[in-house]
Design brief:
This protein has helices at 41-60, 63-79, 81-92, 96-115, 152-165, 180-186, 189-192, 206-215, 228-239, 263-275, 295-307, 327-342, 398-405, 421-430, 463-469, and strands spanning 3-4, 7-9, 12-14, 21-26, 31-37, 125-127, 131-139, 142-146, 169-173, 199-201, 221-225, 244-248, 253-257, 285-291, 346-349, 353-354, 365-366, 369-372, 389-395, 410-411, 413-417, 435-438, 453-454, 457-458, 471-479. A hairpin with a 2-residue loop joins strand 2 (7-9) and strand 3. It has 480 residues and is of the alpha/beta class. The structure holds NADPH dihydro-nicotinamide-adenine-dinucleotide phosphate. The site of NADPH dihydro-nicotinamide-adenine-dinucleotide phosphate (NDP) has 32 residues, from helix 8 and helix 9.
Length: 480
């Protein structure tokens, strides 16, 4: 029997007002396994009214007490972490080791990290001859968080925790494609001690409930992570009411490999950066720029390493590469592989759907895929595919590598592999992206600013930046 997911409104699990649900698939099997509320503006009105009622008392609750509830929620998730990890893998198709060691681990860390934040540290004082001033950071009111399907609970909690810690009441919308772990979290909110209305979780389609959130006059800020076209639509809609927005969007991230790099470390780093989570991490590299003098040797080693990735049932221990998230997304990725061929690319590895026999025979598996001979300006090297794809591009020198790296509309992240500390520092400064890793990939310190430039977003997340986003700053001045 499929599981029926419910909204969480005003402290209670609640069916959608319309009574309408839709099915969601298990990507590894292609079979429906859960029913999701098809929420609409009527559900949103109930949730916003509950959040407005809860706001005055929640705002007045000392930050330390709000943080204690986040830490309690982290503990409750930790007690059920294996169930959460299994659910994330069923819902998303990602291998269990990733759900355990990245998604659920980080979700717990997000709640703890923001739950222990010092809000007073955000305030400043200014002393002048005739006046002294100080700033206060105060909650905004009712805010919304909208999160994507690739790192479902990780990104949901990455937004939920600072919004609550800062004293806001939240309308949270997880992706319709991966609603399960947000639903499981909502089942723990009362036990953690959150008052009714402080957190409301609405499930449903972006086109209906998402648009209703953007248009709602009482939602004062939206923190969104997802694709650039959706981000643009939210930005335009939110502008009509001067809502505050934080947008974490897509990428077309480059990894630069110089001839002086530690070769084996670079090969391992590049393979991880291209194929982790079936290439469905906003930080994954789809463009691998390799210094010409080591191009052939690097290509051979990279293809060999990627060939060894174990593709299979995400729920089987030892699987390294699971299913992509949906049939539509698999088809989109495969259509990009066709485009790469049309654009004259040479296929070095993969390039097709993989049939995994047994219970997963109808699953949405796509092979780790590597192409070469594609100009940096062609569509496959300009558009985000968000799948297990790497295109190898040779470069002659540092200046050309930087020009290619910067030659897309995106600017989320980049990695540089080099044996020269000076070059690492120089190239990091020259690349137009919000994050640059030197001799590593996706090493995350949750306190550091996180976000993209250009079409990869507006604003930054991370400890201080997220708390700043979810608060209004007030300056108080008195004469001496
Ligand atoms: P989408 O933009 O399709 O969806 C993201 C969220 O927005 C989902 O909850 C979606 O709901 C919702 N949504 C869709 N349409 C609207 C709308 N009109 N108004 C309001 N909300 C809406 O992104 P994906 O889920 O496909 O996620 C993949 C994308 O996210 C990639 O581009 C990736 O690069 C980016 N991403 C960026 C990150 C970053 O930090 N910069 C991190 C992770 C991913 P529903 O699913 O129900 O349609």
């Amino acid at each position: 029997m499929p599981v029926t997911i419910q909204n969480f409104i005003d402290g209670a699990l609640t069916a959608p007002q319309s009574g309408a649900y839709f099915d969601t698939d298990e990507p590894a099997t292609g079979k429906p396994y859960a029913r999701v509320p098809d929420s609409d503006a009527a559900d949103l009105d109930l949730a916003v009214a509950a959040a407005q009622r809860a706001f005055p008392a929640w705002k007045a609750t000392p930050a330390k007490e709000r943080g204690a509830l986040l830490i309690k929620l982290a503990e409750l998730i930790e007690q059920k972490k294996e169930a959460f990890a299994q659910a994330e893998s069923v819902d998303n198709g990602k291998p269990l080791y990733l759900s355990r060691d990245v998604d659920i681990f980080r979700a717990i860390a997000n709640l703890r990290n923001f739950g222990s934040a010092d809000l007073d540290a955000l305030n400043q004082t200014f002393e002048k001859d005739t006046s002294s001033s100080y700033t206060l950071r105060q909650p905004i009111g009712v805010v919304s968080i909208i999160s994507p399907w690739n790192l479902p609970l990780l990104l949901f909690t990455w937004k939920l925790a600072p919004a609550l810690m800062a004293g806001n009441c939240v309308i949270a919308k997880p992706s319709e494609i991966t609603p399960m772990t947000a639903y499981m979290l909502s089942e723990l909110l009362n036990e953690a001690g959150f008052p009714p209305g402080v957190v409301n979780v609405l499930h449903g389609k972006g086109a209906s409930i998402g648009n209703a959130i953007t248009a709602h006059p009482h939602i004062k800020a939206i923190s969104f992570t997802g694709g650039t076209p959706t981000g643009l639509a939210i930005y335009q809609g939110a502008a009509k009411q001067l809502k505050k927005v934080s947008l974490e969007l897509g990428g077309k991230n480059p990894t630069l490999v110089f001839a002086d790099a530690d070769f084996d470390k670079a090969v391992a780093g590049v393979v991880a950066s291209a194929f982790t989570n079936q290439g469905q991490v906003c930080l994954c590299s789809e463009r691998i720029l390799i210094e010409a003098s080591i191009y052939e040797k690097f290509k051979t080693a990279m293809v060999e390493k990627a060939r060894q990735i174990t593709i299979g049932d995400p729920l089987v221990e030892g699987t390294q590469h699971g299913a992509t998230v949906s049939k539509a997304h698999m088809e989109k990725i495969l259509s990009y592989f066709d485009l790469a061929v049309e654009e004259g690319g040479t296929l070095l590895l993969g390039g097709k759907r993989r049939i995994v026999e047994g219970r997963c025979k109808d699953g949405y598996f796509v092979e780790p895929t590597i192409f070469e001979n594609l100009a940096p300006t062609c569509r496959i090297n300009q558009e985000e595919v968000f799948g297990p794809l790497a295109v190898l591009i040779p470069f002659a020198d540092e200046a050309e590598a930087i020009a290619i790296a910067n030659g897309t509309p995106f600017g989320l992240s980049a990695s540089v592999f080099t044996g020269s500390a000076e070059r690492g520092t120089r190239v990091a400064a020259a690349i137009d992206s919000g994050i640059v890793w030197i001799n590593c990939w996706n090493v995350r310190d949750l306190d550091t600013p996180f976000g993209g430039m250009k079409h990869s977003g507006i604003g930054r997340e991370g400890k201080q930046r997220a708390l700043e986003f979810f608060t209004e700053e007030k300056t108080v001045t008195k004469l001496k």
